[in-house]
């Protein structure tokens, strides 16, 4: 989805507890980000008529109208989803657009009948619901409603409504070079598109709420992607991003923090699994001097959004959202299995670059996703890998805490500073 080079900013030391600090009054705030600067209008709100929202989505080509190529397996998946939804008395796709009553206790987080129905399905059988998403939702309205059940947190929605934004040069610079091949981010109005403005708002809010970390390059891809799928909903994008950063299933805060400790652990586990599963290929890549870090770095740090086509990223995220960040290793190993013969025929780094760049324009075969379960890494193995890796990184509090994975909530609360007004 992107092709710019990027680097990462080091942040200060993490604190020993969550610290709620007041706004530094010496800073100069920019315009209130709850108003769309490019149009002078308030952003689309869930209470608007559905037809108005659909017109907005269609014009911007985002949310349910995001333009993606349809795969041959879509019809089968649509039938599976229709069968499941029909059991909840949803017989036609248009039925899923009906809003919940305004007095519903779930109206803020689950703003449509579809959201409520999917929540029921998840509560009835969590494993089945995960498997249903992994088969691939047949449209992005279903996808976003499903993802929200794993990523949405009402506390972060409320936090977004009260946090302030302050100019940050790195954010301003990266916003204008993020997802520029997507209409929503390149339709310029007075120097900045609506998508760019919303992305800037979200990134500046993240920069404010996480002062020890701040904004780091790579976050722009993830936030921009979430904006696309959500239909430009800033508050939901922010809430889902915060969940990805601070939830023990994703831990992206530690992907960007200081020495990129989560990334280093992911790369270490990947290298070990590659040698175990594909020893001949692993040796070949070393022989022709194709370093794994050369290409997996961007896969991990942007959750594949830098290196792969939008359609592929949607499917990959169906697994990451439901399985957690360590499943990204399983996806890459399945990718390698599928293309092993082609990889063995590459004889130089230049050949690899030319070959790998094609995946920014062609979608991955569905077999890669369906076969990825073969490379699932058990929790006990992740903990063991972290224990071994920790022997060389004994100053790392994160790696030391990984011995309790996936029970890391206490560690996160103890070591992440969150700032609110």
Description:
The protein has 421 residues and is mainly α. 53% of the residues lie in helices and 0% in strands. The protein has 22 helices and no strands. Helix 6 (154-162) crosses helix 10 (234-246) and helix 8 (194-209) packs across helix 9 (219-230). The longest helix is centred in the middle third of the chain and has 17 residues, at 261-277.
Helix-strand layout with pairing:
Layout: H1 50-60, H2 74-86, H3 113-124, H4 126-134, H5 140-151, H6 154-162, H7 169-175, H8 194-209, H9 219-230, H10 234-246, H11 253-256, H12 261-277, H13 279-287, H14 292-301, H15 310-323, H16 327-338, H17 340-344, H18 349-356, H19 366-371, H20 379-390, H21 397-401, H22 409-415
Helix pairs in contact: 3-4, 3-5, 6-10, 8-9, 8-10, 9-10, 12-13, 12-14
Average of per-residue pLDDT values: 81
Q: Give me the Rg, rounded.
A: 21 Å
Helix/strand class: mainly alpha
Spans of at least 5 consecutive residues with low confidence = 3-48, 97-110
Percent of residues in helices comes to: 40-55%
Instruction: Tell me the distance between the termini.
Output: 35 Å
Q: β content, as a range?
A: under 5%
Shape: globular
Task: Please report the number of helical segments.
Answer: 22
Main sheet makeup: none
**Elements, N to C (H/E):** HHHHHHHHHHHHHHHHHHHHHH
* Number of E-type strands: 0
């Amino acid at each position: 989805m992107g092709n710019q080079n990027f680097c990462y900013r080091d942040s200060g030391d993490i604190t020993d507890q969550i610290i709620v600090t007041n706004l530094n009054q010496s800073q100069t705030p920019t315009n209130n980000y709850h108003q769309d600067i490019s149009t002078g209008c308030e952003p689309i709100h869930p209470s608007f008529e559905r037809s108005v929202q659909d017109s907005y989505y269609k014009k911007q080509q985002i949310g349910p109208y995001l333009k993606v190529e349809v795969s041959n397996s879509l019809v089968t998946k649509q039938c599976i989803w229709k069968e499941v939804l029909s059991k909840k008395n949803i017989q036609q796709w248009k039925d899923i657009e009906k809003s919940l009553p305004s007095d519903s206790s779930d109206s803020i987080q689950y703003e449509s009948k579809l959201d409520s129905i999917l929540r029921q399905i998840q509560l009835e059988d969590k494993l089945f619901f995960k498997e249903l998403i992994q088969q691939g939702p047949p449209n992005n309205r279903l996808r976003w409603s499903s993802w929200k059940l794993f990523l949405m947190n009402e506390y972060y929605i409320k936090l977004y409504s009260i946090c302030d934004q302050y100019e940050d040069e790195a954010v301003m610079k990266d916003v204008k070079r993020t997802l520029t091949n997507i209409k929503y981010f390149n339709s310029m109005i007075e120097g900045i598109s609506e998508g760019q403005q919303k992305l800037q708002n979200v990134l500046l809010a993240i920069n404010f709420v996480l002062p020890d970390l701040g904004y780091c390059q790579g976050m722009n891809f993830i936030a921009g992607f979430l904006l696309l799928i959500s239909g430009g909903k800033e508050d939901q994008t922010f809430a889902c991003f915060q969940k990805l950063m601070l939830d023990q299933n994703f831990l992206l805060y530690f992907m960007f923090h200081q020495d990129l400790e989560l990334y280093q652990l992911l790369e270490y586990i990947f290298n070990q699994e590659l040698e175990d599963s594909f020893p001949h290929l692993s040796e070949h890549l070393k022989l022709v001097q194709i370093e794994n870090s050369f290409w997996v770095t961007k896969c991990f740090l942007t959750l594949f959004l830098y290196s792969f086509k939008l359609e592929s990223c949607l499917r990959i995220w169906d697994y990451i959202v439901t399985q957690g960040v360590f499943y990204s290793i399983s996806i890459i190993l399945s990718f390698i299995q599928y293309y092993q013969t082609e990889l063995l025929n590459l004889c130089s780094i230049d050949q690899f670059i030319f070959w790998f760049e094609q995946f920014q324009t062609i979608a991955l075969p569905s077999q890669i996703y369906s076969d990825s379960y073969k490379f699932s890494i058990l929790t006990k193995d992740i903990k063991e890998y972290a224990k071994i890796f920790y022997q060389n990184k004994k100053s790392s509090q994160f790696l030391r805490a990984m011995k309790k994975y996936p029970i890391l909530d206490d560690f996160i609360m103890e070591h992440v500073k969150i700032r609110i007004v």
